[in-house]
Design a protein that fits this description.
Shape: elongated
Helix content: 25-40%
Largest sheet: 2 strands, antiparallel
Strand order of the largest sheet: 1-3
Number of helices: 23
Strand content: 5-15%
Structural class: mainly alpha
Distance between the termini: 73 Å
Radius of gyration: 28 Å
Number of strands: 10
Length: 549
């Protein structure tokens, strides 16, 4: 398998899979939806990379004692790793590819001897195994907190909720003045470019996400760190890389070093991505090798070659297993066992759950939801009304960056079930519009999915507090029969005149908590009608109505 063409094939593979990943990510934008508002769905297998992710599959199985549909496809990556090593990290992973490209940019911190020394194996590379062990133990106790660090969750969350919205805003800001130009040529050029980008990349409407700035800065910081230390994330933190590294110890493909032809020029270290010590005179660390093949292409003497089924004598000169040690293993076990009880010993899991924590339709009850949600942001990215936002403190520390409905930003479309279609782990169970029960007469449905219940602040409601006509909330209520109804009442205005007003009320047996009333309320600072999670169908303890038989 020796030859300088291997790195070239690897680069082609990296670019193809990166383009595929970005295409699937963009396919969850509103401009790529198919159908009308009564029947919209996404195009393409948007869950593909998550279904390939062995870390998601393993932790999902540990947390739920089952395996959600599609996650068995992770064997497509896991089984070849047993034979080929960490080929996924070097040839497929989009996160690794982005770091690879950034790391190859010119940098004062990585030149000559500094670059060679930076690409030697470092003890801190074992941190990712500690993270992996802690994440697996936490999953066993019912928490998918490992989703914060899963590379695909990180990518979708960062690019989908920060980078793409920022790009969308920047392109509109640049091209809109061109389209409004009085010069025909400039106007035509701007309009053409805008239309093309609108078709390929841009959203029809500008999306806004809470914490988008934080997510974007964290992502850029991770990439920028590769300018100083090659693929720092992959080497030191990535739990998926750690899992594949642990599995690769049994791979039959390994690095052959010809000691006689090697003159220890160390050129193999110049472009080493994994920090696995391909140099002569040092043991090759199999679990750290990303199979990038750069060392083979860089060696001027042909001293390095990847071979299948190498002799035992060569295997004795390598470090096949992660160099973890007992102390770090115990640290990972203790961290995973301690962190879950600490995160769940808060009011967010008890009776005083945050009343504004409105989960998407189809979401499981909170403990089960947190045992499945990997904080990937797919549901938020696909929401056509931009109503799903990443949480900060509403769900406690464990629920950080999980989705919550924010009616003041957008409401839940009655016929839309896109979030359940794209959820890769079943935290939001896949449902149909009929099962959601909002598009038909709720009186004909036994149990429509309810997100919460709307309430009125009569001290702020215009008809109730100020004798001013307003029935916007009733007009926007999408269920049928409407959950918001009006009653005519005789009131006296400030001038002492008697007038007839329509005052809105809520029927809790019909309200599904979609948030349309709160979204449409003309009082922008603090709406007079608001939705809380009480009455949500996913939680038996949150009911306010007793069902009488």
């Amino acid at each position: 398998m020796a030859g300088s063409r291997l790195p070239q094939w690897r680069r082609i593979s990296q670019i193809l899979f990166l383009v595929l990943f970005l295409a699937l990510l963009v396919s969850t934008s509103l401009h790529s939806m198919i159908g009308t508002t009564s029947d919209i769905h996404v195009r393409g297998p948007v869950r593909l990379f998550f279904e390939w992710d062995p870390l998601v599959a393993l932790t999902n199985a540990l947390a739920t004692r089952a395996l959600y549909r599609g996650l068995l496809w992770s064997l497509v990556i896991l089984l070849p790793t047993l034979f080929l090593g960490r080929f996924f990290c070097g040839w497929i992973c989009p996160m690794g590819t982005l770091q690879h490209f950034v790391g190859n940019m010119p940098s004062e911190a990585k030149r000559g001897k500094q670059r060679i020394e930076a690409n030697r194996y470092k003890r801190w590379q074992t941190i990712k195994y500690v993270v992996l062990i802690a994440g697996l133990v936490a999953a066993f106790f019912g928490s998918m907190a490992i989703g914060w660090l899963d590379p695909f969750s990180l990518l979708v969350r960062s690019i989908g909720l920060a980078i793409l919205p920022a790009l969308n805003f920047a392109v509109h800001a640049v091209l809109t003045p061109l389209e409004n130009s009085h010069i025909a040529a400039i106007k035509a050029t701007g309009g053409t470019i805008h239309a093309l980008l609108q078709f390929l990349v841009l959203d029809l409407a500008q999306a806004h996400f809470a914490q988008g700035l934080v997510l974007g800065i964290l992502f850029v910081a991770i990439l920028a760190a590769s300018l100083r230390i090659t693929r720092l994330w992959c080497r030191s933190i990535c739990p998926l890389g750690a899992l594949l590294g642990a599995v690769s110890r049994w791979s039959v493909l390994g690095l052959h070093k010809d000691a006689e032809s090697c003159d220890k020029c160390n050129r193999c270290l110049l472009h080493c991505q994994g920090g696995d010590d391909p140099i002569g005179g040092a043991p090759w660390r199999k679990a750290e090798c990303l199979m990038c093949m750069n060392c083979v292409g860089s060696c001027p003497h042909g001293s390095l070659e990847f071979r299948f089924f190498r002799p035992v004598i060569e295997k004795n000169k390598e470090v096949a297993s992660p160099d973890l040690g007992r102390r770090r293993t115990l640290t990972g076990l203790a961290a995973g066992a301690v962190v879950v009880p600490l995160m769940r010993a808060n009011t967010g899991m008890g009776k005083s759950r945050n009343e504004k924590l409105l989960r998407p339709p189809g979401a499981l009850d909170e403990p089960d939801f947190l045992s499945r949600c990997i904080r990937c942001g797919e549901c938020m990215k696909v929401c056509p009304n931009n109503s799903l936002q990443p949480t900060l403190g509403q769900a406690g520390l464990e629920g950080l960056w999980t989705p919550t409905l924010v009616p003041r930003i957008g409401y839940c479309e009655p016929s839309c079930v896109l979030c359940s279609e794209v959820c890769p782990t079943g935290a939001i169970w896949q449902i149909t519009p009929k099962e959601k029960g909002w598009v038909v007469d709720v009186g004909q449905q036994n149990q429509p999915i309810r997100l919460g219940t709307a309430f009125y602040d009569r001290g702020r409601c215009l008809p109730w507090a100020m004798a001013i006509d307003c029935i916007v909330c009733e007009e926007w209520c999408p269920v049928s029969p409407k959950a918001i109804y009006v009653e005519e009442a005789q009131v006296i205005d400030s001038a002492g005149n008697t007038k007839t007003l329509k005052q809105p009320r809520v029927d809790p047996s019909r309200c599904v908590g979609c948030g349309a009333c709160e979204y449409a309320c003309p009082l922008q600072d603090h709406p007079a009608v608001y939705v809380t999670s009480i009455g949500e169908s996913r939680s038996p303890s949150s009911q306010i109505l007793l069902n009488r038989k």
